[in-house]
Known about the structure:
- By secondary structure, the protein is an alpha+beta fold.
- It has one domain: CATH 2.30.170.
- The protein is built from three helices and four strands; from the N terminus they run βαβββαα.
- The protein has helices at residues 19-23, 58-67, 69-76; strands at 12-14, 32-34, 38-45, 50-57.
- The strands form two sheets. It has a two-stranded antiparallel ribbon. A two-stranded antiparallel ribbon has the order 3-4.
- β3 and β4 (50-57) form a beta hairpin.
- The longest helix is centred in the C-terminal third of the chain and has 10 residues, at 58-67.
- The protein is rod-shaped.
- The protein starts with 11 loop residues before the first strand and ends with a helix.
Amino acid sequence: MKTCPVTKRGSIMGGGYSNRTRATQFNPTGRVRKQLNLQRKKIYIPELKKSITLTLSTRAIKTLSKRGAYATLKKAGLI
Length: 79
C-alpha cells in the first residue's frame, strides 16, 4: 500500500450516490479508492550536509517547508 512516511497517510475508500439514485431507490454506485498525491522529492538537509530522495505526499512537502526538513524528518523517524 502506498503511504507517506512523514504523515503516515494512505489511500481511502470513497463513493457516493447520484442524485437520481437518492430520489428513487437505494442502489449504490460503487466504491472507489482515492489515492494520495505522492511525489518524489529530493531534499537537502544542511544539518547533515547531504541530500535524500523521498516519496512524500503534498501535505508532507508543505510541512517540510514550514517546519524545516531536519526537525520534521527526525520527528517522523526517518533520520
